[in-house]
Structure formats: C-alpha cells, structure tokens
Amino acid sequence: MRRLILPIAALAAAAAIVSIPLDARPNRYGHSDREERHMLPTVSSGPQNPAWSPDGRWIAFSMRGDIWKIPAEGGEAIALTSGPAYYFEPAWSPDGTRIAFAFEATGNLDIGIVSASGGPVETVASHERVDIQPAWSRDGKSLFFVSARAGAFRIFRHDFAANTDTAVTNGIQPAVSPDGKFLAYEQSGLRVLDLATGESRMVRDEETEYRMEPAWTPDGQNILYVTEDEGSNDIRIVSASGGDAIELTNDTTRHEMSPSVSADGTKFAFVQFEAGVPTLYTAAITGGRSSAWRKVPITKRRSLTPTGRVRIRVVGPDGQPVGARIYIDASDGRHYTPDDGFHRSMMVFDRHYFHMTTDAEVEVPAGRTTIEAIRGWQFVPKSAVVDVPAGGVQTATIRLERLADLPSRGWYSGDSHVHDLHQGVGLSHEAFFRQLIAEDINVTHALIHMDGTRLMGRWSDLTGKPSPLSTSAHILQYAQEFRGGLGHIGMIGTREFILPFVAGAGGTAYAQPSLENVYLEGARAQGGLAGFMHPYQSAPRTPANAAATLIALDLALGLGDYYDIGALWSDELGSADFYYRLLNAGFRVPATGGTDNFSDVFLDPPPGSDRTFAHLTGPLTHQNWIDAIKRGRTFFSTGPLLFLQVDGREPGEEIAVPTNAPAAMRVKADVTSIAPVDTLEILVNGEIVQTVRATDPKHVVFDGTVDVPLGGWVAARTTGPKSKYLGDDYAFAQTSAVYVVRGGKRFVKAADVQFLSDTIDAIWTRVERSRWRSDAERIAFRAAIDKAKAYYTRLR
C-alpha cells in the first residue's frame, strides 16, 4: 500500500518480501525511488507550486529552475532567482516581503530565502539528507520545513532568532493555519497537529502518493488538498474537523495539483498538467468544471539574466527530420526545455533531457550553449555548440549518422517493460508514443498493472492489437504485469487481463502468496508470452536468496517464456549469474530485458534504456517479434550492440555433434556501442573461457575457437562503465545461448541442479507459515513444490 510516511526501517522490512529493495537504484539524493520520483521537487517547463501573496496581488511559482512572480490576473512573469542553482516550492512570508523556497546548488536540496523583489539568496537550512517544502509561521519568526535528517521525513521548525532547527512531527507538506495554532500535513492521509499540545488527528484517511499539498482557507475552517481517488489528481475541500470531502476539480484525463487559496478566500490557484507540461489556473473557491477556470496567461518573461532562443533541428543521414532525445547545457550551467516540452532528468546522474519529434525552439540564457542529440543506439550521438545572442535567435541543425543499421539485417529493438502511466503527471497516448519514436524503439510493450489498490494504466488499452498510432517501424502494444510478493510476471501479446493483478500485497484481500501458473499458462493460452522481470538486485548466492522469486519453481513446471536479465530495478550481472544456473539445468530461456521506467514522471530514464534485440525471419510485425523471442533469437542490452555466431549458428539455435567430434568450435562475437565498453567475454556453461580487453572502447571483436567438450551452451556478454548516453547503471549486453548437444545428450551441471532444487525447499520455507485464504490454496502450492522437487530429482 502506498501509505506515507513509513520510517526507513519499515520501508526496508516491507521490501524484504519482494526481490528488489526500494533503494535498488543510485537515486539522485539517496532516497527511495518513490520519494525521488513523486515527492522531491522537479524542474518543469511551466509553472509549479503556485503560492498566492498575502495581499492577493501576486502568484509566485517555480518554473524553468527559477522562482517567478506574476500578477494574479496574468501578464509578465518576473524571475526572482537565476542559475546555476535550481529553485522550487515558493512560500511567501506573512508580510509579503520575502519568499522561502527549496533550492539545489551543491548537489543537494536546501532551504533558502530571497526578497520578494529579487536579490541575493540566504540559506536557512541545509543538510545532506535534503530539506524541502518550506512554510512560514504566522508571526514570521520561524519557518517550518521537511527534512530526512533524522532518518524518516519529518517536519522541522527553524527559529530565525536562535538559528535552531527543532523536530515537530513525522510527515511532509506542512501548512500553517491562519491563526498559527495548527499545522496541516500529510502522513498516511491528511492530518492536523495542535502546535500547543502536540496532539495530532486524522482529517482525511486516503491512500496517497506524496501529493496532498494541503492549503487552508483564510477562515481556518476548511482545507484544500490533492486526491487521486478518481484515478487522476484532483483538488478537494474538506472541513478541518474532518468529514466528507467535496470535489473542486475533476478532469479525469488531466491532473490538477498544488492548490493555493487567495487571501480573501474567494479563489484558489492551482496547476493542471497535460503531456508533462503544467499550466497555471485560478478558480472560484466553489470549484467547478474546467470551463469555469481561468488560465493565468504568461504574456512574457523577465529573467534576471539576458536570454535568447535556439532553434533545434535533428535530421538523419538522408537529411530528413528524425526524433531524438535532447540535452541542452546552457551558459548558466543549467538545462532547459521548450515551453511545450516535458522536462525530465536521469536517475543515474543529474542530466536533464526532453524528447522532440519535430523542430523545437528553446529560450536559454545568452551565451555558449551545447545541444546534444541521441536517437537510440544505432546512431552516433552528436553535439552542436552555438553562441546564443541576447534577444536573438540561433539555429542548430544536428545531422545524425548511423552506427549500425540493424533492421537491414533483420534485427529489431524492443522494450517489453514500459509504463506510460504510473502516478505521474499523466501522458496522452500521443505524447507517450512520441517518446518511443524519439528513442527509436521498434516494439514497445506498455504494461498495465496495479500498484497498491489502484490501476496504473487504462482498462481499455489492452486489446491484443497494436495501438492505432503504430507505424511500420515503431509498434506500440499494451500488455499486463502481475506484481506478486515473490516476483513480477510480464505478459505480452495477450488480449484479456488475467486477474487478480497482485499477490502478497499486505492490507488487501490478496496478501497471501500465490503461484504464478495462472499468469504464465494464461498468457500462452492467449497466444502470448509470459516471462520473469527484474529478477535479482544482486547475484543470489544461496538458495534462500534465490527464493525471493518463483523462477526456479515455474521453470520446473514447464512455465516461463523469457528472462529479463536487465531492468532499472535489478542488476544485470546479478541476474545473469542466476540465468547461467538456469541454462546449466537445461532450461532454454531467452535472454531479454525491459526498462521498467515510468514515462509520466519527471525523474526517470526514458523508455528503451534496457532493450531486447530480436532477429526476425520476416518483416517487422508484433507477431514476428514475439515469435523471435520464443525461439531465443535475442540479445539483451543497456546500450552495446552484441552479436554471436558459433559454427555459423546464432543464439537460440542448436548444434548437434557426435560424441567423438572435436571439442573446438569456431566462435565469432562482435560488439559495437555508442558508450564505452571494457571487455567482451565468451561463456561456456557459465564459465568465462575467453576475454578480449577493449582497445577501441566502441568496437570489440573476437574470432577464434573455444572448447565445448561436454556440450552445453555458448554465449557472449560485454560490460563497460556508466555513460551519459545510457539510462541504466552501466554498459552491459548478453546474448541468448547457442546450444550444443553432444552425442544426443543435453548438458546439465549437477551443482546447479542441486542449487535450484534447494531453492524449491527455500521457497516453501518462505511461504509455509503464510496466512492462506484456504487450505486448498496451501495444498495447491505444496503440490507445485513437490512436482518441482521431483523434476529436479529426475534431472539430477
């Protein structure tokens, strides 16, 4: 359940029931992916976090990395800050002379203050565990803010006179009542704290994702807050003493957030997101349909530093426009996006980007500006450097050249684990598809699933057919993810949902462990495939570690069509280690990968950061692509392009040799990459038998013989450091295996078979004491355990 706020220890305990810890990724500020994606402030191309001035004349907001103010009726937006720092979450002082905010200047988030007319920034609170979300006391003598300095996120009070920070309560998003006696905040719902007595009471108990953002009405009787009960973010009003809430906005296709009430209590300001871009509105305090809202127009912008504009055009080798991912490094050290662009940033390192499929124009500080374009992994990234004149326009045309042309060889890239909607700011089908075009993904599966108790996606998208937006070169098809407490299953090529969506979800009717048969068998019955996603964060060295998923059980039952070695939320080398055990037990599972990114949040790598390349025997169609997966004609990659032949055979194929045939086999492997690689390795039955150190970090080749005396399998992999061109931690690629059968006997390694058999025992130990819904379910699970044990006994 997505309940805020859990202490760090509780988060870790909750994570213990799944295969991937919450802090699996090297997030920007060292917090969980939930907190970083959904709670911490972000840069956007339009207004965010509006704050109405005490005199009602101005609305302050964050935009393009700065704090701005604009007349409440609209007009010229005036910047109060400038780079290279980024500024967020403005809050007016009670006398209207100063504005507090969160800002990032040294790779961390701190609290600062600036004059309401602009000027130097004063740092108020700073800590390595981030400080955010300032809110003034009513007398102006102190400032409430949120910090993780004590472990979990807590609300602190900064006393200006004493220059001290004192913890107040667990929670986030503080809002001080008009009389200064109470604090509204979010903690597993909307709560109100009596500042005199320290007593806290629940006002509104709702499942949330860090976005309630409470705002008092001036009479202190009611609180506005953000809800996602209807499947999108909307604004409601509730009595401060509790009770039923009333909707003020309800646009089911867009998201309304960050309410701020005017001083006279007649109106409230808020932002609405569409395609990742926020727009500022005001509405009567009574709310109503969007036709009654008033857009606050920004007629022009007055920055503290001179600006100009750069026009960007990206073309392919033929000179025709192509989509791309764009990085802009401006003269002030910050990154910028078109006014209608979705401003995003990577998680591995702080690099901001946006996608474009047509020409784009961006306002940037005057001076030296670098624009870099990336289009998937088959084009060489290229930069252009221009000098943008103040008040003028400079044009940058970037011509991309091919690194490789895999479609001409029958190879097509795909990402079978992307989410278009995951509690972010919402994307239309068209806006999502533009990301896929820009990243040059040939086949994308957008997975619909349930997180907590809410559907992430649209019921109507699962049709079993490609999206109408699909083209001959880029296919989008919706699919399903099952999220169990013992691993997640992807189902691609299906036309109907297989329910329930979840298992092992505490606090729901599906808290007990569940076999995955219904999903794995059900996908096949519909003509699709089902496989194992983001298996392990590190190599499972013991059967107890491996029992974090049901993979050893499922494969022994003849189920499971692919194995994602790579994803953002698992480790490639760790997952590959277990993959080799599976191959050594005779399971011919294709090597695949899927990003598992959230395409509608600000902080996340793009779709296609982890890809499967499949070798098709016919033209690009969705069916041909999954047929190639089924045959194991694949390699997985975070960036490098890796190819393998063993005696002229490709991954997924079998070579049958007589018992007395020579052990040596001719192996050719070739890696080409936009990101540096260190080594190319040839594996036989899980052992590295050849290593080629890269002399050219972008191209490595092996052409020689290796011994395969017992039969088994041969595969190749390549590794390299992290790179600004990649969305995952480091460069990695792994081929599926070429299988060698000597004398009619398949190779198995007894030690790995024993390990998997012991994993079955560890799975039962893990689930035996669970709270089963019925004896029948427990008996069925135990029967599956016994069947798998018998399989490994026969194999051994």
Structure description:
The chain is mainly β and 796 residues long. It has four domains: 8-301, 6 Propeller (Neuraminidase), CATH 2.120.10.30; 305-399, Sandwich (Immunoglobulin-like); 406-749, Alpha-Beta Barrel (TIM Barrel); 752-795. Helices cover 13% and strands 39% of the residues. It has ten helices and 53 strands. The strands form eleven sheets. The chain has a 15-stranded mixed β-sheet that branches. A five-stranded mixed β-sheet has the order 1-2-3-4-25, with no helix packed on it. Strands 28-29-27-31-32 form a five-stranded antiparallel β-sheet. The longest helix is centred in the last third of the chain and has 21 residues, at 775-795.
Short description:
This protein is mostly beta strands and 796 residues long. 13% of the residues lie in helices and 39% in strands.
Q: Let me know the average pLDDT.
A: 94
Task: State the fourth-level CATH superfamily of the largest domain.
Answer: Metal-dependent hydrolases
State the CATH class of the largest domain: Alpha Beta
What fraction, in percent, of the residue positions are helical? 10-25%
Amino-to-carboxy terminus distance: 42 Å
- How many domains in all? 4
Would you tell me the structural class of the helices and strands? mainly beta
> Multimeric state of these chains?
single chain
| Alpha plus pi helix count | 10
Keyphrases for this structure?
796 residues, mainly beta, Neuraminidase, Immunoglobulin-like, TIM Barrel, 10 helices, 53 strands, 39% strand, globular
Task: Give the SSE map.
Blueprint (H helix, E strand, L loop, with lengths): L7 H8 L17 H6 L9 E5 L5 E6 L2 E6 L3 E5 L6 E7 L5 E7 L4 E7 L6 E4 L5 E6 L5 E9 L1 E8 L4 E7 L1 E5 L5 E5 L3 E5 L5 E5 L10 E2 L5 E6 L6 E6 L6 E2 L7 E7 L5 E8 L2 E8 L9 E2 L2 E5 L4 E9 L8 E6 L14 E2 L6 E5 L3 E6 L1 E8 L7 E7 L4 E7 L11 E9 L9 H10 L4 E9 L2 E3 L18 E10 L2 E6 L24 H9 L3 E5 L9 H4 L4 H6 L6 E4 L5 H13 L6 E3 L3 E2 L12 E5 L6 H9 L3 E4 L3 E6 L7 E4 L6 E9 L6 E6 L2 E7 L5 E9 L4 E9 L10 E5 L2 E5 L7 H18 L7 H21 L1
Parallel strand pairs: 4-25, 26-33, 34-35, 34-42, 35-37, 40-41, 46-53
Antiparallel strand pairs: 1-2, 2-3, 3-4, 5-6, 6-7, 7-8, 9-10, 10-11, 11-12, 13-14, 14-15, 15-16, 17-18, 18-19, 19-20, 21-22, 22-23, 23-24, 26-30, 27-29, 27-31, 28-29, 31-32, 34-43, 35-36, 37-38, 38-39, 43-44, 44-52, 45-47, 47-50, 48-49, 48-51, 51-52, 51-53
Helix pairs in contact: 9-10
